[in-house]
Sequence to fold (257 residues):
Amino acid sequence: MARRKLIAGNWKMNLTASEGAKLIADLKAACDGSCKCDCAPEVLVCPPFTTIAAVLEAVKGTPIEVGAQNVHWAENGAYTGEISAKMLVELGVSHVIIGHSERRQYFGETDETVNQRVKAALAAGLKVVLCIGETLTEREKGVTNAIIEKQVRWDLADVSAEQLDNIVLAYEPVWAIGTGKTATNEQAQEVHAFIRELLGKMYCPKCAEAVRILYGGSMKPANAAGLLAQPDIDGGLIGGAALKAADFMALIQAAKA
Fold:
């Protein structure tokens, strides 16, 4: 089954509204129409909440989609500082990142709260980029697959096969993000293949084959071609390289079929 590649930019806590609009303008200039060709990957950018509106305006007339970086599980209520799925839908975003390693590491995100956010986002009609991955300690202990399986099973609890159509998984080897360490193409492919096999057991082989699994371990123009050539790597969740138009365009070009 041919899966369309997806290049997703996670801007994290970077770029104001004006800076985000400028980056989109630079991407449009660099694209030169090639982003609309049949072999082009799907392109998604996920700005900070305060930048989303400006970016939605800036991407009009382009195939670039816009997502958010987090969502709360409740529709409304006394949750100061949080954003609901209903708010994101009305704003006009199509996707939301859930369970990013930085949310888990710095903000107390758990598999239970990830699951609640996933179900709320899906119920509201949003597509989910679900992040999973192991730490350096966990990899060195040889428990990568056990950690990945725990996260996938918990995070997708009560998610149906039909809803799986609106899920994209992103494998983040936390030990390879900003540490100077890198995962080889073979290491990344091995975990992606394990995730797909696990989804096949949880749902069905056909369902698993349809799910896109992105690599989120510091994909850059220099290593993108090798990673994207792997049979179970369907794109990238991009951090730093998503903040520079030239680098992000290089990744989009590398993902062309």
Remarks:
- Residues 185-202 form the longest helix (18 residues).
- The domain at 6-29+40-239 is CATH 3.20.20.70 (TIM Barrel).
- The first strand starts at residue 6 and ends at 10.
